[in-house]
Fold this sequence. Notes:
The complex is a heterodimer of chains A (370) and B (221).
Chain A: H1 9-14, H2 19-23, E1 24-35, E2 44-55, E3 59-63, H3 70-77, E4 85-90, E5 93-94, H4 100-107, E6 110-114, H5 125-135, H6 140-153, H7 169-181, E7 187-191, H8 199-216, E8 219-224, H9 227-233, E9 236-241, E10 244-250, H10 251-256, H11 261-268, H12 277-282, E11 292-299, H13 308-316, E12 321-330, E13 333-343, H14 348-358, E14 362-369
Chain B: H1 3-40, H2 50-65, H3 68-74, H4 76-83, H5 89-113, H6 117-125, H7 130-161, H8 172-182, H9 186-214
Amino acid sequence: xxxxxHAPITAxxxxxxxxxxxDAIIRxxxxxxxxxxxxxxxAVHALAGIDLAVPRSSVVGVIGRSxxxxxxxxxxxxxxxxxxxxxxxxxxxxxxxxxxxALRSVRRSIGMVFQHFNLLSSRTVFDNVALPLEIAGxxxxxxxxxxxxxxxxxxxxxxxxxYPAELSGGQKQRVGIARAxxxxxxxxxxxxxxxxxxxxxxxxxxxLLGTINRELGLTILLITHEMAVIRAIAxxxxxxxxxxxxxxxDVFDLFTRPQHETTRSFLAAESGRELPxxxxxxxxxxxxxGGQVVVRIVFRGPFATHxxxxxxxxxxxxxxxxxxxxxxSIAGRPFGTLIVGLPNDGTSLDKALxxxxxxxxxxxxxxxxx
Amino acid sequence: xxPEIARLILQATxxxxxxxxxxxxxGTLFGLPLGVFLATSRRGExxxxxxxxGALGFxxxxxxxxxxxxxxxxxxxFTRLVAGTSIGTTAAIVPLTVAxxxxxxxxxxxxxxxxxxxxxxxxxxxxxxxxxxxxxxxxPEALPGIVLGLxxxxxxxxxxxxxxxxxxxxxxxxxxxxxxxxxxxxEVMASVVIxxxxxxxxxxxxxxxxxxxxxxxxRHA
Lengths: 370, 221
């Protein structure tokens, strides 16, 4: 049977939709966004051909450099931006087709946290969290009953009467998160929520977002320019470059087998993937007699935690010189990269590579050193 | 200084305060919505209405560029229509309000424009209507700036109020001209100036203190 994407609706209806389509709470379908030309500037095509599904209760990350279109993409979900083509479906409603009035009620079911927190300086922590409820016309007693447990959840119960100026960056973002949760939304949008924070605070905020995702089952769509953020909490990731999604999929697959150049360049900064400086300085393309072949081994899959290198040494009698690397876990699964030197004696390299390939490990010859 | 003169100064101070405070109140009543509208109605802004924004901006500029003494005389028919007379302290409130409104509107516009655009976006993302954004975000966040603007407006109006003597408006400036200058009574002139200095100082420090207390952006406010 051939699957025809353009089959008539009647034929489509007979095919059960895939789990992903069925369960997607946010779905971008052929979305494009361009900003019209102005006197001083040409038209800008911010996004083109965006297809993206966010499964219910998942954490999906969109990574891209500044100017890639991530901010526009996330703002399409709550209608702060309107697409010039395509549909943005949130929980069954095409938000692109809604008027301002209808959009306002949809927005109350979508929380958003911002890079620069966007808290009201004139309101206390409590009153900031209460603001979306006031806007929705909630009565004071309900507001109190709703806000108090949220402040407990984000660990700011003792700061309820403080003003934002009296808080640290991490505390401000906690207020931002509590505020985004106040209307009990179905979706949380995170617009570079940790980009203005130091690494330690970033980790604690990501932990909080992860907890919210797990305990409340809240779907999170986040945009970031940091792979570390994706690795910490996302299950799926889309890589955005110049307004297009160049690669998307499971975080572990994408981290361990990046296909697109942009993805590779984001991963380059990750520890262990790059050549150590002392190797990078002397590496050559042509073989060096009596030297070593530099090979990158990517550990993923069932053999990721096996002592494969010592087996190479023991079973094949080949010396392995470890030059660099890192072992870590991504999306809860072990993953490592090692850069090793193998003797350039004509046979060892092929034998070792075959041995590693049998164990489903990816290898790549990077060059030669003396 | 004779009790007679002291009584005159007291009366003039009361007249000045009456004119200035009523004109400020009315100027704020009209100037606050006007200023908020000017700050939010350019193309693409919250209440986007570029034509109306341009038209109101022009009227505001035209009023502000008319020297106050000319304005007072030019709008005498309007003053008579509103106040029933064109002479006296109450009538003087009309030109003072006409001058104060566009001035206050511009000061409030400036204060509202200082509010971080990110807050407007956050409020929109919460599902706030434009009026809710004005009432719950823009005005509260701009309040310290608005208070400083109104302080400046009051100080300016105290100066303006000296001019309404030409239409029998009374007040300190009028007393200074008629007694201090025309009747050559330097002690009256000196007293008038001292009272004005005290008034302006008082208003300014009160406004500063209030604005500081309202400004929660400062840690130790």
